[in-house]
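Title: Comparing notes on inverse folding

I've been comparing how different people in this forum approach sequence design from structure. To keep things fair, I'm posting one structure and asking everyone to reply with a full sequence. Here's the target:
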């Protein structure tokens, strides 16, 4: 859940880039495209092509179509275009639960598929294959797509096909050697970016769906968002989400042009040191921050910082509120484990990762402040002052103040001060109930069942149970990649430490320590 949801009165994040049909805004272009998709699966449907630039909403439209009450319609969703012709047909068979032997014989695959389509037709069902990212299909696979349309009865096609892709798909279909395929397309639609009016309406629509006030963004901010995003919905979502984060961090109830501009600097790829953590830090001033923080490395305590006993949280052992033996380099690692109520008596900093406890895993590396908030667990963070570095234990934050544990006790200091000196390195622990440290597409195991349940929590969808739940198929990979994109992770479908840690937050175990405290 986005940390600004409660602040703005949202029931959920209105600008998640995960395709969610509940937030679908139908511009004239999107209405036309959805109409063509409905035609493609309908009684008279045939071969349909839907194109649009990256981020214009093609996947959202597909999901909207699939969530409609499509009576007697079975859908094969093909998400991986990088396949050979036999693999492509096998993919369709897998989606439709059509049995086959080894998948190497193209003739066997087509024969089995044709038998299934005839049985479905006799039962009054229509079968549709939706092929996403179709502009990446090879010449051989496109020819196979054309041949699949030859599967027919005397009256109608047995398999309806919808090609979805970027504008390059239009150029491919215009090639002379693909004219037979192009001539079979009975409906074409192209998704265009939103204009300025639709951009403003789109933003307000999503806020209304999330239960917020539609005027969170000023009129000038909406115009700026349109100019920066050029009306591409995915970019609009990114800018709006980062702008809301900025307004929240500044305790503002309305997003202004200045906030949008700062959000754009981060979301358009500025380096980490000049991105979100830095402009938060700059609000306090780097020089002032360095002066306030230097006591950790120099040994002098500024009078503005409260005494350890006054600020030590209840979860910190009593020893943390008194002078600590600075010669013990393992103390902070042990205190991190004790936040999880784990025995840390024999733990050293070097042995912290991986921890001895099997179901508690280690997560380390480089991140920005937003990612650390999303992970939402106490963390060892590395701070740098005048070329010297030291680890401190970040116990909690309320968005303004940070409670940290250093060599001489627990301290409370402005969050901006900490961010100004943090170099992005961190080490945290998370609960791993999946039973695996890496879940990959194509894997079949109980870990995949766990993954499906967590993804169902994230998407608000019912979980699939049974034998099929243990297989990491292409549909699940799309959902995982959407989740990863939403949280700023590489969208590779590989469920590793960071993805596992974020999925853990959907249903954290009792007693799980949290980093982010709600402001009072």
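Reply #1:
Here's my take.
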């Amino acid at each position: 859940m986005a940390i600004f949801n409660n602040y703005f009165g949202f029931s959920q994040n209105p600008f998640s880039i995960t395709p969610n049909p509940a937030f679908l805004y139908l511009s004239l272009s999107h209405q036309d495209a959805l109409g063509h998709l409905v035609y493609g699966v309908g009684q008279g449907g045939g071969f349909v092509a839907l194109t649009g630039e990256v981020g214009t909403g093609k996947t959202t439209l597909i999901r909207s179509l699939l969530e409609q009450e499509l009576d007697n319609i079975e859908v094969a969703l093909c998400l991986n275009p990088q396949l050979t012709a036999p693999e492509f047909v096998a993919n369709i068979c897998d989606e439709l639960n059509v049995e086959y032997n080894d998948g190497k014989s193209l003739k066997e695959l087509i024969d089995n598929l044709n038998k299934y389509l005839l049985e479905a037709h006799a039962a009054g069902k229509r079968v549709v294959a939706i092929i996403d990212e179709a502009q990446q299909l090879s010449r051989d696979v496109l020819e196979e797509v054309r041949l699949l349309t030859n599967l027919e009865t005397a009256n109608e096609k047995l398999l309806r096909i919808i090609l979805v892709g970027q504008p390059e798909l239009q150029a491919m279909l215009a090639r002379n050697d693909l004219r037979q395929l192009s001539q079979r397309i009975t409906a074409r639609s192209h998704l265009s970016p939103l204009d300025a009016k639709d951009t403003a309406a789109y933003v307000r629509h999503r806020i209304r769906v999330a239960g917020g006030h539609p005027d969170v963004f000023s009129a000038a901010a909406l115009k700026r968002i349109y100019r920066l995003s050029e009306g591409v919905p995915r970019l609009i979502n990114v800018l709006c989400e980062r702008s809301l984060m900025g307004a929240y961090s500044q305790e503002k109830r309305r997003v202004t042009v200045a906030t949008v501009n700062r959000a754009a600097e981060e979301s358009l790829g500025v380096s980490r040191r000049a991105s979100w953590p830095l402009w938060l830090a700059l609000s306090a001033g780097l020089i002032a921050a360095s002066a306030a923080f230097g006591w950790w490395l120099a040994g002098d305590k500024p009078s503005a910082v409260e005494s350890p006993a006054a600020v030590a949280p209840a979860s910190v052992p009593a020893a943390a509120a008194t002078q600590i033996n600075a010669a013990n380099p393992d103390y902070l690692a042990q205190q991190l484990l004790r936040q999880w109520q784990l025995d840390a008596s024999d733990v050293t900093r070097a042995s912290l990762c991986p921890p001895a406890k099997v179901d508690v895993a280690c997560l380390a590396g480089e991140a920005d402040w937003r990612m650390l908030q999303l992970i939402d667990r106490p963390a060892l963070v590395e701070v740098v002052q005048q070329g010297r570095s030291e680890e401190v234990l970040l116990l909690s934050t309320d968005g303004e103040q940070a409670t940290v544990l250093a060599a001489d006790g627990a301290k409370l200091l402005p969050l901006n001060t900490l961010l100004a000196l943090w170099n992005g390195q961190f080490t945290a622990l998370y609960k791993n109930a999946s039973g695996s440290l890496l879940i990959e597409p194509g894997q079949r195991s109980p870990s995949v069942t766990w993954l499906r349940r967590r993804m169902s929590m994230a998407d608000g969808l019912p979980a699939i149970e049974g034998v099929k739940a243990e297989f990491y198929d292409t549909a699940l990979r799309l959902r995982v990649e959407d989740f990863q994109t939403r949280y700023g992770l590489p969208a590779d479908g590989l469920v590793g430490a960071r993805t596992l840690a974020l999925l853990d937050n959907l249903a954290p175990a009792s007693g799980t320590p949290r980093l982010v405290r709600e402001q009072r």
